[in-house]
Design brief:
Elements (H helix, E strand, L loop, with lengths): L2 H8 L1 H10 L9 H23 L15 H10 L21 H25 L17 H18 L4 H29 L3
Helix pairs in contact: 1-7, 2-7, 3-4, 3-5, 3-7, 5-6, 5-7
Length: 195
Amino acid sequence: MNILERLKHGTRAEHLALEASLPLLHPDLTLEQYAAVLRAFAGVVLPLERRLAALPWPAALDYPARRHTPALQADLGALGLSAPEFALPHTLATTLPAAYGTLYVLEGSTLGGQLIRRHLKQHLKLDTGSGAAYFSGYGPDTGAKWRVFGQVLLECAQSDSPVEHRASTMANEIVQEARMAFGAFSAAVAGWEVL
């Protein structure tokens, strides 16, 4: 099983729990609920991305082009909201390769965000310029950027860990980090009582 498969299987419970706590795809989604989710996500993403920006990512990943902070700040501004920040686990997003787990969560959200973006447009009349930039991901480049992330992660897992035991240990660290990242989002959403 490669690292992407391990991440998908190893974080399934956390991923489903977070999705179940979000009203984003409910047909009766209100602007107030959306604003609460957006603030909760911003409270996690902004400090996470500051940590991630300090790490030595490979050039092929082009990490600066993957930052979601500008989109979140634009959305908050469009809706007249402020950006809170939550206390994150002190070990989250502080070392490579474990931080690939956090990036897996952030990059994966761009895929699901495409469905959410359409729902926001239909039910709240929000688009990229009026409060739905974060869930627009990378627009038409979202799939391609996900594939690049996956390839970089696979290469990291193979080249950085030539010994099977070391590769397994690294994969476990990445999966554990992804679980903690999902947990940080779940805690933030629970704190805003978005349902």
